[in-house]
Write a structure and sequence with these properties.
Structural class: alpha/beta
CATH architecture of the largest domain: 3-Layer(aba) Sandwich
Number of strands: 14
CATH topology of the largest domain: Rossmann fold
Number of domains: 2
Strand content: 15-25%
Low-confidence stretches: none
Distance between the termini: 62 Å
Length: about 260
């Protein structure tokens, strides 16, 4: 079987928000100098799910990532985990895109390769939109199952189990289909040193807008349907007022009066 996995490189999610720098002119964010990016957590789980399925039924796992400035030892992590191929989508026209234009590029890449199953994270770890997988499914005209847990190939269908607030869903979908990976996938495997070194020697394939047959005016910032009006770090403040009284009863009465003045009660 042919498994295709979409992977995104994001700033390290463990960096405290206060350490990021905001460019208010361009509405962009930059992590602190010296920090290393990471593969989005749910995308790592999607890679793990694809590798488990390949181990069960055989086949090939191809990873696709849209990024003009990837850190190679980061974006090659799926190769170190055991993926077979890596395709990078790089073009100046792809810059500044939103979920829709990102999906348009990824869908075009999917059309260039043979696949039975596409996997991606349920949401990226930076913007947390959770939209790209559904957009790609619509563009390709294939079904999608979101926030999946246990996966199993059952003949010509993929069987998905996932927990909901009301119990448990068991869904079967014919191939080809798209799966977005959730927490129930489990834990992604940690690459071994020899696999990291082997991944470093592999060269990714690189495709641009022309290779994908895409109109530059329909991708990136030029084709985006949404625009960021303001990007900022949230400012939090707190105020404390101490209540002094001779007895606990008096303190409770003063507290109640204060809460009533504040219209809390």
């Amino acid at each position: 079987m042919k498994f295709l996995v979409f992977v995104k490189q994001i700033p390290d999610p463990d960096i405290p928000p206060a350490q990021f720098r905001i460019d208010t002119e361009k509405n962009t964010v930059a992590p602190p100098q010296g920090s290393s990016p990471a593969v989005s957590t749910y995308d790592e789980l999607a890679v793990e799910a694809a590798l488990r399925l390949r181990d069960d039924v055989g086949g090939e796992v191809t990873v696709v990532s849209l990024n003009n400035n990837p850190v190679m030892n980061v974006i090659k992590k799926p190769l170190a985990m055991g993926s077979d191929n890596l395709i990078l989508l790089q073009d100046d026209a792809f810059e500044g895109g939103d979920a829709m234009t990102t999906a348009r590029v990824l869908a075009a890449a999917a059309k260039k390769v043979e696949f039975d199953l596409i996997l991606c994270g349920r949401q990226a770890g930076d913007w947390d939109n959770g939209q790209v997988g559904s957009y790609v499914a619509e563009m390709l005209g294939v079904p999608i199952v979101i926030n999946s847990g246990k996966l199993e190939v059952n003949g010509d269908k993929i069987r998905v189990e996932r927990t909901t607030k009301d119990g448990r869903d068991i869904i079967e979908s014919p191939f080809p289909t798209i799966i977005t990976a959730g927490d129930e996938i489990g834990v992604a495997r940690y690459p071994k040193l020899r696999d990291i070194m082997a991944a470093g020697r592999k060269q990714p394939e690189v495709w641009n807008a022309q290779d994908l047959g895409l109109d530059p005016s329909k991708v990136g910032d030029a084709g985006a349907l949404t625009k960021v009006n303001r990007l900022y770090l949230e400012e939090k403040s707190s105020q404390v007022e101490m209540i002094e009284a001779d007895t606990p009863a008096e303190a409770g009465e003063q507290l109640a009066m204060k809460l009533r003045d504040l219209k809390v009660i």
